[in-house]
Backbone:
């Protein structure tokens, strides 16, 4: 069943803001149109960066009173462009624009066993799950890894709430998490939900595959495939229909072809179904496959692409003919020649 | 609509109106609850279809014997998964284009392509196997606490033996609860087996506590009706004489009713707790709404004497089968009459006290889910 994640923007009042660990601030929001948040859900909100609005996503740590109070926790990223700085400056009484809770990381109830793995600020996505699993008496373990205790939010609350089911790994205490040891405790009927630094998640993914565990039992939030290159303008040609169109930076190739009057087939428009695929006849540039429909083998073959999400780009050294020393390359957009069904 | 019925309806709109919906004729069913979906032996490696609370389910077992419940409609073109087959340790394959899902409802194979669409899932429902039944939770899964499974412990206790069946009842589930919460109908519906006039004559007591209701009725120094005389003689060969008879009805929301029933030689202290001169059974009933107007009625008769006699188990099961067949006929006729008379209301009698508490509890559960008690009539 598809979850409806259409954003509903609304006002929210900040009712509470305080630090819960070094560099981590808990912010409690009162949304204008409350709805209860499921474990694993997040909300988007608007922050100001250098006076410009930008959107950020935060996991909902806690949903009280059927969503009348939603708590998020914000880590002040050292390399932040200013989003988390803006969030850290919030005080009770401030107002924000937020979306309703949205779900990209649902918890499935009914697995024989669970492991919940949180690395650092990733605890924000995991905390609510742990609470639900405890309340329905599920067989779960909560593994919480971090650099130092004082940078690990909610640690003492979690210790009190989950007792023996919680194991804590702290780099500075010399108890860093050994991913292979963790994987060794997992059996075929266990579902593992994780949120944390990419390095940690990659290590778990590799360990999971190597141990021969079933891929669908490893759960983490996916943010789609954002491609290799920044989107840029390019040209698409369909000789059979005598069409040439320009695909702007903010448009998809599917939209550009529709605008040009080509009758296209599609369904998901997010790179999953493969219905919008076209045949590549000729290419001046490189295909930036952003779908999850093709396998790596099919993408490498380069003979087809999904036009709802995938693009064409001219990376400096992408094709043999470009040496990278052509200063005006930006003026020469990539060109793809296609046939459509 | 008659003038009285109109007055009643308009009363229903006043603030004291929970009394109005307590007499809802077609009762809604709470979803945040465990319902029996099947007997344990019904769920096998071969998927089966069953509709529970209007939701079509595919039920099957994984290779290691765990029961699983998925929505019975493939993500792709909604073909029923129950027509498919189990594959691998944990999978079920759609019969149409071969998509395979694991027991969590996540797609693990799309035969016609090299990758798996990450959106391809079917809803899975929490399942618990307990007391010889497979229970399923259709509401908010984050509230699916196993401790909320109603007590049916006699079903799997060493101290009780027996067996039962399933009735596919052509009525709203609540009519069956009404039927079991007031046993004065036995005198009229079951005259040849367990009915006797003392049932209507004797006093009864109703109590309620949280999501439970109890109705107790004792009849002293009466003749044992045929069903009970036979049971007495199974335990005490050649028994003759008067008996004390009891019926203690235990309801637990949303649809489980256990009836502690029995007779003992009159005056031997059964009412004070010494049942050793009698025979004791538990009529185990748990009712699962199938649709608004049909129900799965799972029943069994358990006894605590002559546990090893398969003959008695079979005789009791067949005997109750006959008795409940009489209820089945009445319940269907009642549902038909309700549907044929949409402008008529329910009125209540003093004997309905137990059933009315049941309705009150169900109403509260529905209210907590933000759902109305009454299903509007077609
Ligand atoms: S429309 Fe589904 S992949 Fe493009
Ligand atoms: S309907 Fe199930 S695979 Fe097509
Ligand atoms: Fe009956």
Residues:
């Amino acid at each position: 069943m598809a979850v409806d994640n259409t954003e509903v923007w609304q006002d929210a009042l900040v009712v509470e803001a305080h630090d819960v660990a070094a560099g981590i601030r808990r912010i409690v929001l009162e949304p204008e149109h409350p709805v209860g948040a499921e474990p694993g859900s997040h909300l988007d909100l608007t922050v100001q960066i250098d006076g410009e609005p930008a959107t950020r996503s935060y996991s909902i740590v806690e949903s009280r009173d059927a969503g009348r109070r939603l708590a998020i926790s914000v880590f002040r990223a050292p390399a932040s462009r200013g989003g988390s700085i803006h969030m850290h400056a919030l005080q009770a009484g401030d107002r924000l624009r937020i979306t309703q809770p949205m779900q990209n990381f649902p918890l499935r109830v009914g697995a024989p066993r669970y492991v919940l793995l949180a690395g650092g600020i990733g605890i924000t996505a995991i905390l609510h799950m742990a609470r639900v699993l405890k309340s329905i008496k599920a067989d779960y373990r909560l593994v919480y890894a971090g650099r130092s205790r004082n940078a690990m939010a909610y640690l003492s609350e979690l210790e009190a709430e989950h007792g023996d089911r919680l194991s804590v790994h702290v780099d500075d205490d010399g108890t860093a998490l050994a991913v292979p040891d963790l994987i060794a405790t997992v059996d075929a009927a266990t579902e593992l939900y994780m949120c944390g630094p990419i390095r940690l998640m990659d290590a778990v993914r590799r360990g999971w595959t190597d141990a021969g565990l079933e891929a669908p039992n490893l759960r983490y939030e996916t943010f789609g495939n954002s491609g290799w290159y920044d989107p840029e303008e390019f040209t698409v040609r369909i000789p059979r229909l005598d069409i040439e169109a320009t695909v702007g930076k903010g448009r998809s190739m599917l939209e550009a072809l529709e605008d040009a009057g080509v009758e296209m087939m599609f369904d998901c428009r997010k790179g999953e179904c493969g219905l919008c695929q076209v045949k590549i006849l000729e290419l001046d540039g490189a295909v930036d496959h952003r779908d999850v429909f093709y396998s790596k083998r099919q993408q490498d073959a380069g003979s087809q692409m999904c036009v709802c999400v995938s693009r064409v780009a001219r990376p400096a050294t992408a094709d043999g003919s470009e040496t990278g020393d052509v200063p005006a390359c930006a003026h020469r957009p990539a060109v793809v020649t296609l046939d459509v069904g | 609509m008659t003038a009285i019925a109109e007055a009643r309806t308009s009363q229903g709109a006043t603030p004291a109106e929970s009394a109005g919906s307590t007499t809802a004729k077609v009762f809604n069913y709470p979803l945040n609850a465990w319902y029996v979906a099947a007997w344990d032996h019904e769920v096998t490696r071969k998927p089966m279809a069953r509709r529970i609370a209007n939701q079509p389910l595919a039920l099957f077992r994984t290779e290691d014997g765990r029961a699983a419940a998925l929505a019975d409609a493939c993500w792709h073109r909604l073909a029923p998964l129950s027509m498919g087959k189990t594959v691998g340790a944990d999978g079920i394959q759609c019969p149409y284009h071969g998509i395979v899902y694991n027991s969590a409802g996540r797609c693990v194979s799309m035969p016609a392509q090299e990758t798996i669409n990450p959106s391809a899932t079917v809803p899975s429902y929490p399942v618990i196997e307990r007391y010889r039944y497979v229970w399923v939770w259709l509401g908010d899964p984050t509230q699916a606490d196993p401790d909320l499974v109603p007590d049916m412990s006699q079903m799997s206790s060493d101290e009780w033996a027996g067996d039962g069946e399933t009735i596919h009842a052509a009525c709203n589930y609540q009519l069956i609860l009404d039927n079991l919460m007031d046993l004065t109908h036995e005198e009229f519906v079951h005259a040849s087996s367990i009915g006797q006039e003392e049932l209507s004559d004797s006093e009864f007591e109703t109590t309620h506590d949280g999501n439970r209701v109890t109705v107790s009725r004792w009849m002293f120094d009466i003749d044992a009706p045929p069903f009970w005389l036979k049971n007495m003689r199974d335990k005490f060969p050649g028994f003759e004489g008067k008996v004390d008879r009891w019926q203690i009805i235990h309801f637990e929301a949303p649809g489980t009713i256990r009836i502690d029933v029995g007779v003992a030689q009159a005056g031997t202290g059964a009412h004070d707790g010494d049942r050793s001169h009698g025979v004791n059974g538990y009529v185990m009933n748990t009712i699962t709404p199938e649709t608004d107007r049909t129900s799965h009625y799972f029943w069994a008769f358990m006894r605590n004497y002559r546990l090893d006699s398969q003959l008695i188990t079979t005789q009791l099961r067949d005997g109750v089968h006959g008795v409940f067949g009489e209820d089945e006929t009445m319940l269907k006729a009642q549902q038909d009459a309700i549907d044929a008379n949409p402008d008529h209301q329910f009125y209540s009698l003093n004997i309905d006290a137990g059933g009315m508490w049941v309705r009150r509890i169900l109403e509260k559960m529905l209210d907590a889910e933000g759902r109305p008690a009454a299903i509007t009539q077609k």
In short: The two ends of chain A are 30 Å apart (CA to CA). The domain at 10-103 of chain A is CATH 2.40.30.10 (Elongation Factor Tu (Ef-tu); domain 3). Chain A has three domains: 10-103, 113-220, 234-339. The first helix of chain A runs from residue 83 to 88.
